[in-house]
């Protein structure tokens, strides 16, 4: 079954002569349980695709289907947010500085209309490997990796099927990145999640994803399997260029 | 002769729980070379860079036997003399352009100010230099970027603007603190190549602070590896992959690799003895 289907997606900002076309005619389809990567440089439109899906980029045209449901405009209903959740790049910016971990998660659970909040908060913390002693801490009492775990717990609160991961580890140290990527991989297996992951880091995408799309200037130039990338066999010239740039010359 | 010589540098922050030592007795010297400082966040690498320029804000304390720039101890200079050193002698590219650029002044004006601060010349000359510098950091549309405000440029472009701004006064030493962490892989090398070219061409010294081991091994001559405020290992950059210290090895192993497929990445296990071992001289 297709979890996410995007056809002829255009996303733009501004209007008239200030109009910037951030995504141009993007097509992609992510099967349920699959992990799909979007790579490209900054400004290539990879994050904008995620933002269009979640309604954060209101000006778009084309078709976005989430589990068979066609989306329109920028309004998303409650059911959508129970299906799709997003993890942002910067855990420092995406958590409320004056809310404890408990408040962050409880409020999210409440907004999803769930009961048994106390038990669920405890479960979420265990799920992301934080444990109960972090429950009443504020974001500034957590390290970057721990904060990102809280952000992941918050995304998982509504038991979504699809996670949109926008550079989830690029603000983290490599040793912490390894821990968070391992966590994300485990969670995907455990909950049967579908990932759409944005990163500029080819090795990270190759590690996490089965398939990936390479973007440039708002267009998807190539869709390939991670195996193809690992073997160093992308077809498109630009993908080869990206690959060369991310492998240090020996 | 070395450009910069640092002996027993400490950076301390008094807190309610006692004094926190961010840098603990670091010694190294920098010639006309590219010196890399790698480590994770909290290892003291950025604090080391800032302490050289005396940019540690109170109540933070910088102590050292000496921080000599061509024989002159920077810690003994007045704040006024220090202002002459910053920018003109030693310049620094900081981590995040969002906080380094003035949000209410156009990019062009900021670049021209950086030039005019340390050089006498007309505004039109400053403008010409600014545009040239922007082109040097591979900004294609320099004229438009000159008119733009910082929020109108991408993070990657912002960092290139910062690099341009820091190189305009033509300093002897450039301290680059994670200069390309916000840039795309394809531009990283391009920008580092520009920095590299300048370092060689002008006989500058470069302190390249980064968490990216691969980039450092590629663009530096020597690398200091820092852990909890001390240098745990010093090695030739091209021999980084044969590093001996378990911390360095652990960092290298936690990176996902295209040529090595595995389900789980190896996670670094920290040994308390690493932070207790004496600092290595670099």
Number of helices of chain B: 11
Strand order in space, largest sheet of chain B: 7-8-9-3-10-11
Number of domains of chain B: 1
Mean pLDDT of chain A equals 93
The global form of chain B is: globular
Helix/strand class of chain B: alpha/beta
Mean pLDDT of chain B, as a whole number?
Answer: 89
Family (chain B): Belongs to the ABC transporter superfamily.
GO molecular function, one term (chain B): ATP hydrolysis activity
Keywords (chain B): ATP-binding, Cell membrane, Membrane, Nucleotide-binding, Transport
Subcellular location (chain B): Cell inner membrane
Describe this structure in words.
The complex is a heterodimer of chains A (250) and B (282). By secondary structure, chain A is α/β, with parallel strands linked by helices. Chain A has a single domain (34-59, 73-246), classed as 3-Layer(aba) Sandwich (Rossmann fold). In chain A, 38% of the residues lie in helices and 27% in strands. Chain A is built from 10 helices and 10 strands. In chain A, the strands form 2 sheets. A 6-stranded mixed β-sheet of chain A has the order 6-7-8-3-9-10, with helices on both faces. In chain A, strand 7 (162-166), helix 7 and strand 8 form a beta-alpha-beta unit. Chain B has 282 residues and is an alpha/beta fold. Helix content of chain B is 35%, strand content 24%. Chain B has 11 helices and 11 strands. Chain B has helices spanning 45-52, 79-85, 97-100, 107-118, 123-136, 142-147, 155-167, 185-201, 213-219, 246-253, 273-276; strands spanning 4-15, 18-30, 34-38, 61-63, 66-69, 72-73, 90-93, 173-177, 205-210, 222-227, 230-236. Chain B has a 6-stranded mixed β-sheet with strand order 7-8-9-3-10-11, with helices on both faces. In chain B, strands 1, 2, 4, 5 and 6 form a 5-stranded antiparallel β-sheet that branches. In chain B, a hairpin with a 2-residue loop joins strand 5 and strand 6 (72-73). Chain B starts with a strand and ends in a 6-residue tail after the last helix. Chains A and B meet through helix 7, helix 8 and helix 10 of A and helix 8 and helix 9 of B.
């Amino acid at each position: 079954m297709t979890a996410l289907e995007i056809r002829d997606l255009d996303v733009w900002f501004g209007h008239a002569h200030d109009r910037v076309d951030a995504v141009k005619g993007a097509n992609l389809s992510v099967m349920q349980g699959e992990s799909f990567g979007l790579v490209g440089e900054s400004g290539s439109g990879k994050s904008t695709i995620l933002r269009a899906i979640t309604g954060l980029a209101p000006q778009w045209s084309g078709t976005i289907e989430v589990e068979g449901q066609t989306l329109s405009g920028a309004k998303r209903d409650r059911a959508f947010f129970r299906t799709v959740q997003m993890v942002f790049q910067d855990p420092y910016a995406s958590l409320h500085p004056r809310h404890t971990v408990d408040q962050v998660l409880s409020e999210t659970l409440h907004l999803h209309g769930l009961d048994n909040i106390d038990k669920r908060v405890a479960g979420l913390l265990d799920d992301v490997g934080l444990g109960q002693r972090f429950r009443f801490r504020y974001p500034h009492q957590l390290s970057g990796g721990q904060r990102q775990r809280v952000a992941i717990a918050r995304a998982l609160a509504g038991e979504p099927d699809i996670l949109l991961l926008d550079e989830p580890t690029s603000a983290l140290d490599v040793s912490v990145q390894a821990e968070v990527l391992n966590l994300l991989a485990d969670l995907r297996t455990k909950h049967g999640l579908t990932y759409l992951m944005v990163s500029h880091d080819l090795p990270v995408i190759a590690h996490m994803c089965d398939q990936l799309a390479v973007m440039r200037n708002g267009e998807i130039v190539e869709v390939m399997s991670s195996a193809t990338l690992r073997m160093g066999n992308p077809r498109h010239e630009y993908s080869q260029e990206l690959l060369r740039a991310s492998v240090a010359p020996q | 002769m070395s450009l910069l010589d640092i002996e027993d540098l400490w950076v301390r922050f008094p807190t309610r729980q006692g004094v926190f030592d961010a840098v603990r007795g670091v010694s190294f010297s920098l010639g006309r070379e590219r010196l890399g400082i790698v480590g994770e966040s909290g290892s003291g690498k950025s604090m080391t860079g800032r302490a050289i320029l005396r940019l540690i804000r109170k109540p933070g304390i910088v102590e050292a036997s000496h921080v000599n720039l061509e024989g002159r101890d920077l810690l003994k200079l007045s704040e006024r003399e220090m202002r002459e050193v910053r920018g003109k002698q030693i310049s620094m590219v900081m981590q995040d352009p969002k906080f380094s650029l003035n949000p209410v002044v156009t990019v062009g004006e900021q670049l021209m100010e950086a030039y005019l601060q340390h050089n006498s010349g007309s505004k039109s000359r400053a403008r010409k230099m600014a545009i040239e510098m922007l082109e040097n950091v591979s900004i294609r549309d320099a004229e438009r970027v000159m008119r733009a405000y910082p929020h109108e440029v991408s993070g990657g472009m912002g960092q290139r603007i910062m690099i341009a701004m820091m190189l305009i006064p033509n300093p002897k030493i450039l301290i680059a603190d994670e200069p390309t962490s916000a840039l795309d892989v394809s531009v990283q090398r391009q920008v580092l190549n520009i920095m590299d070219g300048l370092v060689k061409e002008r006989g500058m010294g470069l302190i390249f602070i980064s968490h990216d081991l691969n980039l450092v091994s590629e663009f530096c001559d020597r690398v200091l590896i820092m852990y909890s405020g001390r240098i745990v290992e010093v090695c030739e950059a091209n021999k980084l992959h044969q590093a001996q210290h378990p911390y360095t090895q652990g960092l290298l192993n936690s990176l996902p690799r295209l040529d090595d497929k595995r389900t789980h990445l190896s996670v670094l296990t920290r040994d308390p003895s690493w932070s207790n071992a004496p600092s290595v001289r670099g």
